[in-house]
Write a structure and sequence with these properties.
heterodimer, A: alpha/beta, Rossmann fold, 2 domains, B: mainly alpha, 21 helices, 80% helix
Chain lengths: 255, 561
């Protein structure tokens, strides 16, 4: 019997997106296709305003594409699903709910008993390193901690695919560094149910540090310029020549 | 400087002409005996009169609001005192200002001119507070980095006011203007046709027209007048408020990129050029004074003392004048029975005040329960596109014009008895409160940050969760700002909701509104003043002791310490 190649966990096929604002058409995404396999950490990188965030929202199901389709585990994405979780650049935390309550909000759509919800909330708050901060309010914690709450909320759903929209762009460099390894751990290790992850970023070094494959996009309207496979062992050393070569490569592709 | 007829000046003069055209006919056209007859020509002239008064009062209110804002921005400590004062002032019902208005204004300007000025003053008192509140709301929410900008670049005061403070306040002033103008229409009838004792004043205008057609039971005329009123409201909404609102979106303090600049409609261009000319002149004047004053310390000190002295003298003069006027109305022989009568009046006023308070409070609770679901539906569902414009227009339409229909409706179901009259009174009071609450709730619900909206969509939060955990707490912010104004609106509505003229009938319930009406009709200025005094004391005390702590609790929950 022939062994079939496993279907990719995510397939983006000829996705196109046009926005209509005050009777004018803006083509944001022209034609994008790529796939994400199980165990892969993929990065989407391109110049500012090129539609990367729109693409991620299309993948999540928040926005419908004008053309083409997105397949998640073989099925077309028509609306957000329980198998995917989104992490926001601006954290999207509700100011008057505690850390605990914010994480719990992510579980709202799942049909699991209350007891299990509480267990998951507790487990993933500890996982991201916020043990003890359950009753704090967002305004009482730092930016890095806020994003950890966002991650805990996304993880509590135990998704197969983790979608991250510039998760570290609102944080200072030092805090961001502290979180990068956590992101790798979330996607690549077996400690979480997450099977694959997509990160959108405009920071080339960050992408080369994190991902297995970088989808390099052009300016608006966005197209895939190239898929760059990053074949470096982890943990990656940002000071090696091969690291610089990848960074150079991607930067020259964008400009 | 060359005198050139630039486009700006053309706009300026066009706007000036438009304002004059609505105002001048009111002065020049003499009243014909049958002016109140319902013919299209008459209605047009009457509407012009009313519009002229409304516009004049509105402009006065706008200027006062801006001057107030500038004053507050210059002396930081004033912020603490200004809100309590405004709270009380805006709660005073329109009739409360009648004695003061008549006394002061009519002594200064006798005859028809004086009466018109009193009418404009009354309309002013129903509009100015909304404008002042919105100007102050603009001032208190100015982002700290704009303030730091001023300090860091050592910006001139006048430049800061004209280039930063006023443009930032512009959107708030626009929404405040919509509320203010609507408030003016609401009390148009009370402002054009009032009586003080044996003096019945009826100024030609739409308000008086509606009043008399209702009084004589002429349904056809009443409906015609109502139609004209609605047409005017929609017209003003389309020509002024709607484009202004769109245009004011350019002045929001936000970081979104990739948005389109809202192009100004023609009216806006006119208004804008007009304001620019005025502001430029003001800036030059201001700059001149400022440079003169700051150039020499001694000149500045003298000027400061002079201003303080003038303020004290002015207040002193006003107090003396009022006291003298009051005294000259009182009979000179003071008797014990007079004192007894005065005390009895105070007691009566206090009892009426308590009745009125419970009425306003009940109206508030009922309104709140209505407004919250209505606000959620209007702001968060697809009905938004339909409901918001309707609410906008309804907000400008005076509910009072529909009172007769409301009364007929309720009385046809339960007849006219103590209970139904109280119910009618309650509903009528609510009409004066609902827009303040609804407006603010809808605004807070519309201001939920976009990333939270996306998050709720992505995580497919249940509707019950959304309402309980997101929409209600978000609305709490709007309730905070809307409640004080709603109570003010409720108190204001009392003069028309507790003393209801229904055709030739008068339905009354016990309360400060009917108290003021009764003594106004009897010509008892002393009783009116007593009633006003009792009212102010009650509202101020209640505000500080009960309301403020509760609202502060909500504020802390919603906005954080």
């Amino acid at each position: 019997m022939e062994s079939k190649k496993p279907i990719p966990i995510l397939e983006v096929r000829n996705v196109e997106k046009v926005f209509i604002v005050e009777n004018k058409e803006f083509q944001v995404i022209q034609n994008i296709s790529f796939s994400v396999n199980e165990g892969e950490f993929v990065g989407i990188i391109g110049p500012s305003g090129c539609g990367k965030s729109t693409l991620l929202r299309i993948i999540d199901g928040m926005i419908r594409p004008s053309g083409g389709k997105v397949l998640f585990k073989g099925k077309e994405v028509l609306q957000p699903s329980d198998g995917m979780s989104f992490v926001f650049q601006t954290f999207a935390l509700v100011p008057w709910l505690t850390v605990e309550q914010n994480v719990e909000l992510g579980l709202d759509s799942l049909n699991i008993p209350e007891k299990e919800k509480k267990e998951r909330v507790s487990k993933y708050i500890k996982f991201v390193g916020l043990d003890g901060f359950e009753k704090f309010f967002p305004r009482e914690i730092s930016g890095g901690m806020k994003q950890r709450v966002g991650l805990a909320r996304a993880l509590a759903r135990e998704p197969s695919l983790l979608l991250m929209d510039e998760p570290l762009s609102s944080l200072d460099e030092l805090t961001a560094r502290g979180l990068r390894d956590l992101l790798i751990r979330l996607v690549k290790s077996t400690e979480t149910p997450v099977e694959a992850g997509i990160i959108v970023s405009h920071n080339v070094e960050e992408v080369v540090y994190l991902v297995d494959k970088a989808i390099v996009l052009s300016g608006r309207p966005a197209k895939v310029i190239e898929e760059v496979k990053i074949d470096l062992p982890r943990p990656r050393n940002t000071k090696t020549r091969s690291f610089f070569k990848y960074v150079d490569r991607i930067i020259s592709l964008i400009s | 400087m060359l005198i050139v007829l630039t486009r700006k000046k053309l706009y300026f003069f066009t706007l000036l002409a438009t304002i004059l055209l609505t105002w001048v006919p009111a002065r020049l056209v003499t009243i014909r005996a049958n002016l109140l007859e319902a013919s299209l020509g008459n209605l047009a002239i009457l509407s012009l009169f009313s519009l002229g008064r409304m516009t004049t009062a509105y402009l006065l209110g706008l200027i006062s609001a801006i001057l107030l804002e500038i004053w507050v921005s210059r002396s930081e400590h004033l912020v603490k005192y200004i809100f309590p004062v405004l709270d009380v002032l805006q709660s005073v019902p329109i009739l409360g200002f009648l004695p003061a208005g008549l006394l002061v204004i009519r002594q200064l300007a006798p005859g028809r001119l004086g009466t018109e000025l009193v009418s404009i003053f009354l309309i002013f008192t129903s509009q100015a507070w909304a404008l002042m509140y919105s100007a102050l709301e603009g001032f208190t929410t100015i982002p700290s980095d704009l303030l730091e900008l001023k300090k860091a670049f050592n910006q001139r005061e006048s430049s800061f006011i004209i280039k930063i403070l006023l443009p930032y306040t512009f959107p708030f002033l626009v929404s405040g203007s919509i509320l203010a103008f609507g408030g003016g229409w609401y009390f148009l009838m009370a402002a054009e046709s009032f009586s003080l004792g044996n003096e019945q004043v009826n100024l030609p205008g739409l308000g008086t027209f509606l009043f008399y057609s209702a009084y004589t039971g002429n349904l056809k005329e009443y409906l015609l007048g109502l139609l004209v009123l609605l047409l005017i409201v929609v017209f003003i909404h389309e020509i002024f408020w709607s484009p202004l609102s769109e245009f004011s979106k350019n002045f929001r303090y936000e970081f979104t990129s990739g948005e389109v600049t809202h192009k100004p409609a023609l009216t806006i261009k006119l208004i804008f050029s007009f304001t620019k000319v005025i502001l430029r002149t003001l800036e030059k004047v201001y700059f001149f004074f400022n440079s003169v004053l700051t150039s020499r310390q001694r000149v500045r000190n003298t000027f400061d003392t002079f201003v303080k002295f003038t303020k004290i003298v002015l207040i002193f003069l006003i107090v003396i004048y009022l006291a003298f006027s009051l005294y000259s109305i009182q009979p000179t022989n003071f008797s014990f029975t007079q004192l007894q009568a005065s005390l009895l009046i105070i007691v009566e006023a206090s009892i009426c005040m308590i009745y009125s308070f419970f009425r306003v409070f009940t109206a508030y609770i009922v309104t709140l329960f209505l407004v919250i679901p209505l606000g959620i539906i209007a702001a968060r569902t697809v009905l938004r596109k339909l409901l918001l414009p309707i609410f906008d227009i309804m907000q400008s339409t005076p509910a009072i014009a529909f009172f007769p229909f409301l009364i007929v409706f309720i009385s046809s179901i339960m007849g006219i008895n103590q209970f139904s009259i109280n119910l009618i009174s309650l509903v009528l009071t609510m009409t004066g409160m609902i827009w303040y609450l609804l407006f603010n709730v809808v605004i807070s619900l519309s201001n939920i940050p976009e990333d939270i909206e996306e998050m709720l969509k992505s995580f497919k939060a249940k509707t019950s969760t959304k309402i309980l955990r997101i929409y209600l707490p978000a609305a709490a912010g709007g309730i905070f700002y809307g409640t004080i104004q709603a109570f003010g609106g409720g108190y204001n509505a009392l003069v028309v909701s507790e003393y209801i003229t229904f055709g030739s009938q008068v339905l009354t319930v016990r309360g400060i509104g009917s108290f003021l009406n009764k003594y106004s009709n009897a010509g008892n200025v002393v009783a009116l003043t007593v009633g006003l005094f009792v009212f102010i004391v009650f509202v101020a005390t209640f505000d500080r002791l009960v309301w403020v702590p509760i609202l502060n609790r909500i504020k802390r929950f919603r906005f954080g310490d």
